[in-house]
Amino acid sequence: MDARADAGVRRLLRVGRTVSHMARSLAFYRDALGFEAVGEIVDAEPALARLPGATRAKSARLKLGIQEIELLAFDPTGRAYPKGSTAADLWFQHVAVVAPDIDAAYRRVQGHGSGAITTGGPQRLPAVAGGVSAFKFRDPDGHPVELIEFPAGVGASRWHEQNASHLTIGYDHSAISVADVERSVAFYTRVLGMRAASRQLNRSAEQDRLDGLHDVVVDVVALEPREVATPHLELLAYRNPRGRAASEVLQLDDVACDRLVFEVANLDALIEGLEHAGSDFARPASVIASDEFPNGSRTALVRDPDGHLLMLCEEKA
């Protein structure tokens, strides 16, 4: 079912990550990547804390430029990030942090003991793949992060207008690995109302080194929200190597359970479309009652066709 004309994802509000040690993660994102804390560590929203198995959750938000991420720490913590994970595995989700000087940002990241995914340092991809320079690594819990530098004329204009004295200035997108690119494009465009902005097939020695894999062939699709195009969502569909699906559905307290938090218009119409499409909601009730949120906003927790967790938030009119 197609989203109604007045319904759909308006913008990506933030990316959420579940972490095992809040203080350690806050220090890493601050010192290695330049994020700044927004307020204090607080109790997580009641709707999140009441998810199955998720109790005593703490939340902290950080900002880089005008983009936010949210860290959630549960007590007890769920399953650790799966060992031996690759970019092709279907729980993969990274945040692409923009670095005007990627070599300088890379040196800072290296100084904070992160685990590299990319081999041989930052890689300059061929022009057919955008000509960007990129480097992928992991935070202390194993979550993937990407540093990305855009050449002149590539990427959103804001990345060429920012103060280049900062090693990092925001994040451009969050990328998720998917099993079936056509199915995922249909879900995010027809059901959630996003726009397919670009599509390319990446295969090169540089791509192999970037992903730390061999003989990579990957479809890359950029999907933009309807009102604010940056940051956006990127789909990664690996034709080779084929990735693994999670052995069990990831719960919010599992460290690998990242989430995309979208602001939407006409949540009821989206819920109708999602239910018609057979979407697997993260809790029995698709819409969390508005009285659970002090500002009157309404939220639905949803899983996409590959199990990635989404939060759809409609602000009070």
Tell me what the structure shows.
By secondary structure, the protein is α+β, with helices and mostly antiparallel strands. Helices cover 16% and strands 35% of the residues. It contains six helices and 18 strands. Strands 1, 2, 3, 4, 14, 15, 16, 17 and 18 form a nine-stranded mixed β-sheet that branches. Strands 5, 6, 7, 8, 9, 10, 11, 12 and 13 form a nine-stranded mixed β-sheet that branches. The longest helix is centred in the middle third of the chain and has 11 residues, at 181-191.
Number of beta-strand segments? 18
- Give the class from helix and strand content and strand pairing: alpha+beta
Proportion in helices: 10-25%
State Rg. 18 Å
Low-confidence stretches: 283-292
Q: Alpha-carbon distance between the termini?
A: 25 Å
Q: What is the H-and-E element order?
A: EHEHEEEHEEEEEHEHEEEHEEEE
**Can you count the helices?**
6
In percent terms, what proportion of residues is strand? Answer: 35-45%
Q: Biggest sheet: strands, sense, closure? A: 9 strands, mixed
Anisotropy-based shape: globular
Mean pLDDT: 88
